[in-house]
Amino acid sequence: MIMHLVSPSKFRSALVIGKSEALIKVDKDFLKRVDIREVRTAVSAADAKRIMSRFAAEIVICADELADMTGLDFVRSLRADDGYRDVPVVMVSTSPGREAVLQSVAAGCAGYLVRPYSLDALSRHMDAAWRLREFAGERTGLLRRAGLAAESGEMAKAVGDYEAVVSAGDPMAYFEDGAGHFENGRFDQAIEAFNKAVKLNELFAEAYLGLSRSYAAKGLVNQARKYFGKAAHASLVDRRFAQLKEQFVALYRAEADGFNPFAAMGREMSKLRDLAGAEEAFGCALELAPKDSSLHVELARVYHAQRRSEEALTALGAALTLRGDDHAAQELYQRLTGRGYDEIGEPFEDPDSPFRPSLTMRIINAVLYMAVGATEAIHRLRRPDMTQAA
């Protein structure tokens, strides 16, 4: 009998998590066959987090169902935690469909295995996860070095390293590559390409912020503003605004004339009738400037265009509470309700309390949004040929 051998994994430790003890044993045995000897197991997300707090798992093999939540929810919780966000997770499921693959990519999985899987398949996913780690490693090192240079006042050196990060490739090219693989059913390659796009975009967002700070320190206002705008765009794409919010706020407050890049993006998206994008952009703009009544009005217009009158009135109420003489807000309020704002008996909110839109700010789910959009675009382009072939 001839045994097919696979190369040992470069990962040295792993965590296997799932609600089925029998399937956990299968996954653990497979990991040992690719020479991963340090393996821990857990049946719930709570157990997994406790183990990870004291065991440095280099990779996680996660079932789609855990004892206390879904596998996707667990992956999302890791991605939201700075301590674990870079730990690769391979999802193992019995669902082979495209939608399941897209959901795993959107959640931040490094791979997607369908049961029953082969040793070759596991090995390929391990190799892909390791390539992503190496792909990000050099750029992450440059970003760290640039930050240290900036802290020590070596702005020219910092700018050079930050620029090296943002010249390292085009995230959109990886998205398009992933969309092509996805369209042709090459899901493994699609996931790897999408993950590279996301990782590049994360690094770009931080590097652009670093460039903005560095140029501001050198007194080059236009350059600082240029990269501040680029950082705003990058953060919208990959949902990093929440993590980078404090840095955005600090930069915004340092702007002499209150330049708000998200507001400009929101207006542009409104012109293009990208209402979902405009809503996200104005939500981010309000995180920077919650007392700007004009931004509440802009958001109200977007809600109104989406026929969401309740949210529109809430946003207008915030605008008019902040500034009762805002004519644009008064006019839109009159149009929506048929009465003037001065006819209301009670104010909408305490103007000293921070306003939050009734829908919590959601930054665009980059991978799912771009992957689906690019795939649909490819499908539309190919449809005439497919029709002729039929």
**Global mean pLDDT:** 79
Shape: globular
Q: What is the CATH class of one domain? A: Mainly Alpha
CATH architecture of one domain: Alpha Horseshoe
User: Sheet bearing the most strands, described?
Assistant: 5 strands, parallel
Strand tally: 5
Query: Main sheet: which strands, in order across?
Result: 2-1-3-4-5
- By DSSP (H or I, 4+ residues per run), the number of helices equals 16
Distance between the termini: 46 Å
Structural class: alpha/beta
In summary, what is this structure?
With 390 residues, the chain is α/β, with parallel strands linked by helices.
What does this structure look like?
Helix 14 runs antiparallel to helix 15 (327-337). This protein has a 5-stranded parallel sheet with strand order 2-1-3-4-5, sandwiched between helices. With 390 residues, it is of the alpha/beta class. The protein contains 16 helices and 5 strands. The radius of gyration is 24 Å and the shape is globular.
Topology:
Blueprint: E1 13-17, H1 21-33, E2 38-42, H2 45-52, E3 59-63, H3 71-79, E4 89-93, H4 98-107, E5 111-114, H5 119-151, H6 155-166, H7 171-183, H8 187-217, H9 221-238, H10 241-254, H11 261-271, H12 275-288, H13 293-305, H14 309-322, H15 327-337, H16 366-389
Parallel strand pairs: 1-2, 1-3, 3-4, 4-5
Structure keywords:
single chain, 390 residues, alpha/beta, Serine Threonine Protein Phosphatase 5, Tetratricopeptide repeat, 16 helices, 6% strand, globular, disordered C terminus
